[in-house]
Fold this protein.
Amino acid sequence: MRYNVIINQEKCKKHSLTAAEGAMMDLFNQLSSWADEEVIEGKTFYHISRNKVIDELPFFFQKSDTVYRSFKSLEEKNLIEFMKQKRKDFVRLSRLGKGWNKLGNKSDFTSNSEKYPSKLGNISGFQNSTSSPVN
């Protein structure tokens, strides 16, 4: 079971995803680190069983048909490619899905914005003073 799930609320809202689908996208973003891969039609897919999704995300999924519906929903929203082969479920992130964890355009981060501050704070006036802030 995954103890921590990161749900990108901005992307979920943008693509009209449920919290469960957002959790599934977090799981899919890490498939390459643990799932078995298979090249199908020249593309790398990852085998993920519905029971594995239930085991990893029990707070969000309890039934395999709910997992399947989420697979299909994410495919319809062009976030993943889903394929069934030899009674196994395979997924891969689409181009849109691969951008799931990107923070935004570089132009969104101006030099003095809250997202990308150029300075972490001002130097205290006490440094230039001979007196100490604590007596």
About this structure: DSSP finds five helices and four strands in the chain. The chain has a mean pLDDT of 85. Residues 4 and 11 are 18 Å apart (CA to CA). The longest helix spans residues 64-76.
